[in-house]
Amino acid sequence: MASNSVYLEIVDFFASGTTPQTVVDFQPSLAAQESALELLELAKQDQLTPEQASELDHFTELEHILRMAKARARQILAARP
Questions:
Q1: How many Å apart are CA 2 and CA 35, to the nearest integer?
Q2: C-alpha to C-alpha distances, 78 to 44, 69, 70, 73, 81, nearest whole angstrom
Q3: Residues 56 and 4 sit within 8 Å (Cβ to Cβ)
Q4: 3-state secondary structure (DSSP) of residue 73
Q5: What is the CA radius of gyration of the chain?
Q6: pTM, rounded to two decimals
Q7: How many CB atoms lie within 10 A of CB 20?
Q8: Of 18, 33, 37, 63, which sits 20 to 30 A from 2 (CA to CA)?
Q9: Cα 37 from chain centre
């Protein structure tokens, strides 16, 4: 499942050590972005398999976590003198 590679991509990012700025700057790989776009297109056409629907749910969860982390990182950066 492609979402596993996205999970590993994000786990590797955080495990390698981050700063608020690197969190703000983080972007998933082009391959991960393309995979998510393909799933979204299939969903629009109501052509997702159950496995693909699950994968899209995982992407959505990951996107939410990343948005929350980026928002918090921006708050931390804004609070610095």
A1: 8
A2: 38, 14, 12, 9, 8
A3: no
A4: helix
A5: 15
A6: 0.80
A7: 18
A8: 18
A9: 12
